[in-house]
Amino acid sequence: MFFYDSLLLLSNIVIVAVHTQSESRSSPGISSCSYAGNLKAECGLEDVSIADIPHGCTAIIFDGIYMDLTNNVYVSCGGDDYLAKLDEILKDSKDVFVLYGHATQQEWTQVLACEACNNGTNSQNEMKGLKSFLDQHPGIKGLLITNLELDDNSVDFPEYSENFKVYLDTMRSNFPDLAIGLYLIGTFIVDQHTNPKSTWLNFTIIDSSVDFYSISVVTFNDCTDEFKLLGTAPIGLSNSLNTTSLGHSNSSSTNSTNSSSTGLTNLTMPDTNYTLSNLKDILADLSVPLNKIYYRYRLSPLSQDDSLSQCNDTVAEICSNGTDSSSWCYENLDSFNAKGQFSKENGAGFIVNYIELNDPENVCKCGPYPSFNAILDGYNGISANTSKECALLKRS
């Protein structure tokens, strides 16, 4: 089975997003921030209140709401406490989006089996269960539909997109003011485009029913020595999408330095298909509109030690324990700044993963939330503040 993004390890996850309007519906803003909300219980770390997150993160996506095949909403863990956290966040003035879907692609296949031929019967029944949930938790601005990626257990579904569009349109007709987004895994998109396993989404069919796309590169490459200073989602160089090089790194991209795309010099770009530039080219080839794309970036470092969780891999840990974390994959502020520029040029904005792990207490002496602010500066055309003393974050 393919696993394209690690399961979210923190239970009370929300994403803080910029408040903008698209027609009557909200959308993620230019600089969304995922927010755990309960680090003390989950990780033994001090909690960071919503009031203390950066002002650049302005609003909220709650994670882990699922619909079962009997049209009942459930959460994967946390139960009533989990939903109480959602209600607490909904009292804030910021927009709230909920990550939502069926637990597996196989369940999606059962729901979508014949929606285009039976007037969306399954979808209509599901919307009744969803309405009950939304009525119990008023104020949710939108849904991010998830778990759409295929795996080894998936069967070919030639009318997948047509049936999914019926589902989306049914959701739209039932909840016209609710924003609808898709949460998609960047690694799967690259793999599916390079070597299709089965029929998947045809974006030209479904796009008119989708408000935005969140494309995650949180786990894009494994952490190896090649990515120690680049981070695991390097920008790289664009590849030519043609029949001979589709999805493969050509010589100009694999042998060049990465200085122009990450702010780092004398680093050879690893031979990998999983670069932001290649992903951007593929999304264009799939006809995904730039003005609907939000790249989801990892703010915290990634360890080569699989036994460590995101609770252990924090930015503050790099600065306070440099020797032990010397093999971790992380990038410098210039590199994060370049990711902001990339998002500006190739999308509608960005989402960052777990803002509380980005040194809120200023252990690194670079200012609180240094990586997030560097990305936001890059998006806004402001160069990384190289005059700021950030010696503890320098990697070698």
What's the helix count?
13
- Total E-strand runs: 12
Overall outline: globular
Average pLDDT figure: 83
Strand order of the largest sheet: 1-4-12-11-10-9-8-7-5-6
Q: Which range best describes the helical content: under 10%, 10-25%, 25-40%, 40-55%, 55-70% or over 70%?
A: 25-40%
Largest sheet: 10 strands, mixed
Distance between the termini: 36 Å
Would you give an account of this structure?
Helix 4 crosses helix 5, helix 6 crosses helix 10 and helix 12 packs parallel to helix 13. Strand 5 and strand 6 form a beta hairpin. The longest helix is centred in the N-terminal third of the chain and has 16 residues. The chain has 13 helices and 12 strands. The two termini are 36 Å apart. About 10% of the residues have low confidence. It has 396 residues and is α/β, with parallel strands linked by helices. The chain has a 10-stranded mixed sheet with strand order 1-4-12-11-10-9-8-7-5-6. The chain is 29% helix and 15% strand.
Name its key features:
single chain, alpha/beta, 10-stranded mixed sheet, two-stranded antiparallel sheet, 13 helices
